[in-house]
Amino acid sequence: MIEVTLLGTGSPIPDPNRAGPSTLVRAAGQVFLIDCGRGVLQRAAAVGVGAAGLSALLLTHLHSDHIADLGDVIITNWVTNFAPDPQPLHIIGPPGTREVVEATLKAFGHDIGYRIAHHADLNAPPPVEVHEHTEGPVWDRDGVTIRVAPTDHRPVAPTIGFRIEADGASLVLAGDTVPCASLDELASGAGGLVHTVIRKDILGHVPQQRVKDVCDYHSSVQEAAATAQRAGVGTLIMTHYVPPLGPGQEDQWRALAAAEFSGQIELGDDLHRVEIAAR
Ligand SMILES: [Zn+2]
Ligand SMILES: [Zn+2]
User: Which residues form the Metallo-beta-lactamase domain (predicted)?
Assistant: First the structure.
C-alpha cells in the first residue's frame, strides 16, 4: 500500500485555506515529499511528519509555487535532526535543481553561520545531496523504487514526473504538464496518478492575458482525466486547483473528470488522504 496525502492543493495565488503545491507519499516506511510549496511543513506537521523524517524531497520542476518553502525544508531538516551523524537530505529534481539548492544555501548563509556559531553540535552546513535527472531510475532502497520521465510544461524545461513503487503498489506524480507520451508511458498501469489541474473553461475567459497564458502549459481537468484513462490508471488524484476549488464545487470538478475517466476520482482539501493498494 502507498499512502498519499495532499499537503498543499493551492497554486501561486495565496489562499487562506490551501497551502502551496506539495504531496506527501508514505511507502514501505519511507517518507517522500513531492514539491514544497508555501506552508508545506505546517501541513506535514498536521499528519505527524517533520522535516527530519523525510527520506527524500522530489521536485517536479523549479516554478516558484512548487519550491517556495525549499529553504524551510532544508534548514528545518538540519536543525531538527538530532542524530549524531545525520544523513544528508536527498533532493531529486530536474537539471537546475543543484543551482537552486546552492543559491538557497547561500541565501540562508547568515542563518547557517549563526546556528553553527551557537550550537556545539552543529558544526557543518545542512547536509544535502542533490541528484539531477530527466529519465530513468533514481531510487532503489529498502523496497521502494522510483523512476522519472520527462513531462511537458514548456517553456519551463526540463520538468519531470515520478513513479514510486512499493509493496506491489504504484503511484505516479505528474506535476504541471500538458498531456504527453512520456507521461502516458510513466503512468501506464499505475494504481494512482496525482495530477495538477486547471479549469481552462474558466481561465480562458478572464480578461488578463497573463492568466489566460496559464492554460497553454497545464492540463485541464478533462485532459488529466484523459491521461489517466489512456494510461489505465486505477485512481486519479487531482490537486493544484486553479481557480481554487470552492466549497460545494467538488461534484462539478468530479463530473468533468468522470466524462473522460472511468476509474476512481479523488479531490478535496489540504490533507485529503488516499490509499493506493497493490494491483
Ligand atoms: Zn509549473
Ligand atoms: Zn504549478
Answer: 19-218
The domain tally of the chain equals 1
- Which is nearest to 240 in space by CA: 7, 25, 21, 64? 21
Strands 128-132 and 89-93, sheet pairing? parallel
Q: How far is the CA of 257 from the centre of ligand 1 (A)?
A: 21
What pLDDT is recorded for position 122? 92
DSSP assigned state of 86: P
CA 84 / ligand 2 centre spacing (Å) = 37
pLDDT in tens, 67-87: 999 999 999 999 999 988 889
Domain containing residue 234: CATH number? 3.60.15.10
* pLDDT surpasses 90 at 194: yes
What is the rounded CA–CA span in Å between residue 12 and residue 20?
7
pLDDT digits (tens, 9 = 90+) for 37-53: 999 999 999 999 999 99
Q: What is the pTM of this model?
A: 0.97
| CA angle 143–7–136, rounded 5-degree value | 40
Q: What is the mean pLDDT of the chain?
A: 96
Q: Distance from the CA of 226 to the center of ligand 2, in angstroms?
A: 19
The gap from C-alpha 190 to its chain's centroid, in whole angstroms, comes to 17
Evaluate whether 198 touches 178 at the Cβ level (below 8 Å).
no
Distance (Å, rounded) from C-alpha 147 to C-alpha 127?
Answer: 23
Residue numbers annotated as active site: 65
Beta carbons of 33 and 24 less than 8 angstroms apart: yes
> Which residue from 147, 142, 144 is spatially nearest to 131, judged by alpha carbons?
147
The ligand minimizing its distance to the Cα of 177 is 1
Range of the domain at 33: 2-276
Per-residue DSSP letters for 8-24? E---SS-BTTBPSSEEE
